[in-house]
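cron nightly-structures :: item 1 of 1
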Amino acid sequence: MTGLPGRDAVLVPVGATEREWATLEEYLELVVPLSRPAPEPHAQAQEFRRAADAVRQVLGDATYAGSHGSTGPYGRREARPLWGSPFLRWRQDRVTLELQAGTDGPELVLQPSEAWETWYSLAGRGFVGVLEDCCGQQLQHPRWELAGDWDTLQVSIGAFLRTLPAVTLATGMSPNLALYGRVGDASPIMFDIVCDDRLYLGYCEYMVEEAARGENAVKLGWTRRELLPPGHIRPGDDGKPPWRIDAGGPGEVQASEMAALIVRTAQAAGVTKPTDLIIGGEAEYRRPYWIHFAELAMATG
């Protein structure tokens, strides 16, 4: 018994699924559920954030922060909450304290450091921010193949976008990605992905084919910024790029549709193959973290 509003603490032995990553340990995790908020994505994300802020007040910034993405740690898909799988990890030499999203609410988890890090380096998804000053500890990022076809790229973009507003609200991280598209000899900025507690997509028609300009951009599914309804323009938006989509907040994102919009616009703009859509290198740093986007099967440049 913990005396907390969540369930009782649980000591989790290493199972067959995890043995590949935890070769010497008898137990993989000590899980302490903290609370049981309402099941809606916004309520879950807010409660996670409340717990995150409380732990940060005591331990400082997490060593690693981000989202487990489309698969749970060690490939345990059944353990992945549908609203999102954010995490914050405070690493010591052999032991790590993780704040994770459990099935009912936030959980504190004590676990061996190397087990998760070994799994992540070979099979991790989602995105991970590494604290810029984390005592020299180097986290090895997985080396996934780039998307070789448009369908694969669309699925990876959809998986990344689906829970992004909830994860952003939960962790306090605000990813800001610029996607560049290679069109002939030029590589103009083509899309931006900005997220705080809502997801906003932007499109710039500079140096693209006629099939993705003006009224053709409308036909593809974009709206001019000045025509968006009140309340659907991101606070502080400077008006660039001119084409916008308010994709929604936690639990609201139609991720497959948004991914399809990006892919068909890139194709219409003159991007001939999926490997020519590239994440701008400026997305890799959001103070105080260096971020790797494992879920996106895209190069960074």
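cron nightly-structures :: done
The mean pLDDT is 90.
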